[in-house]
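Let's study my pick:
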Amino acid sequence: MAKAKSKTTFFCKECGYESSKWQGQCPGCKAWDSFVEEPVVRTSTGKAVARKEIREPSRLSEVQFSEETRIISGIEELDRVLGGGIVVGSLVLVGGDPGIGKSTLLLQMCQKLVQQSRKVLYVSGEESEKQIKMRAERLGVFQSDLLVMSETDLDIVAETITRSAPDVVIIDSIQTMYREEIGSAPGSVGQVRETTSTLLRLAKGMSVSIFIVGHVTKEGVVAGPRVLEHMVDTVLYFEGDGGASYRFLRGVKNRFGSTNEVGVFEMRGSGLVEVSNPSEFMLQGKPEDAPGSVVACSMEGTRPILVEVQGLVCQTNFNYPKRTAAGIDFNRVNLLLAVLEKRLGVRMNDMDAYINVAGGMRLNEPAVDMGIVLAILSSYRNQVIDGKTICFGEVGLVGEVRAVSMAEARVQEAAKLGFERCILPEVNRRQLDLEQMDLKGLKLIGISNVYELLEIL
């Protein structure tokens, strides 16, 4: 029998590129100082390999497809982000900061699935079975039909999955699993690659949906090799300020649905509670008659969400004015400040400017430009914008206000929540079919450039 040879090789932590020697820059992803040394085990070339069964390829038109290929989790916000439910045979990675609620969300999902008579296996490498039961009873999700297991050996976990044949498996977490043949510590590049590869084969071969929890680094990305995110089908990030009650589940990769959807939850003592109407929820506590406060509309996937954009402008005490942005792109704020100074003559070179999106949500859509501009102007001129006013629109470098997508959905959301005035791009206003829309007294004000905002103020 051929004897296994042990050697070491170098892996890139970012993309998984393999090299026989250490390199300062990865040839694959061009990342610097990303190579780590890992021991690997290879068999000699003289080892006999059993002949494998060769499968004939299938015609795409002959592949059977039905609605049963998705499992409804019972948590609508999670199903929304997943694209309509859990795809059978999919591998889903859930990442997030410590204590944000990843395990809580997945344990509550297990409860919903068990109620549907689904067979669910919860594997934890961080907690004992007694600790899992204590947490489950605190959440009120304990069921005798839920299978739990405390194990870190990948071979034992894989054998258990093969024998029990569950519908859904939870692995908490990927960094605690290990295989003895690899030889390196759990959580290393080699261990994470091997664990993910094994779970991927199980998911596809047995049509088992597997959720794996991943720890994140201080930069906010999943710890381990970047290839981990490439191997899985779906990557979900659970975000939110640890001191706030809001939690946001966002998809950054999804082979079976949109990556723009977001699920909103509220953390309570009894666990996570879905927020079915995020707009109303995000606007709670909005101050009345306060300069610098504006309601803007952002689209998260197919859902319009109304948020409060706050701006504060004050005289600087330093040689260089300070700029701070929370919940919005910092460079975008600087760009809009330059537009205001150049096009409207608003002197900002000796003023500190602070922008904040209330509620802890992070917005990346250019349609929020109008809200940022109005919040800055309102604070700069110390003028109050009516609380029943909502706005959206993209602002260009020459001061023009450009059209944005899905304007009809934004306007209908504003009318549903009782707003009386909507400031939007003139192009979008002309395209709306007002006869087919129930505006409920909502007045539409179309503008073409930022100069018209001064007249509105």
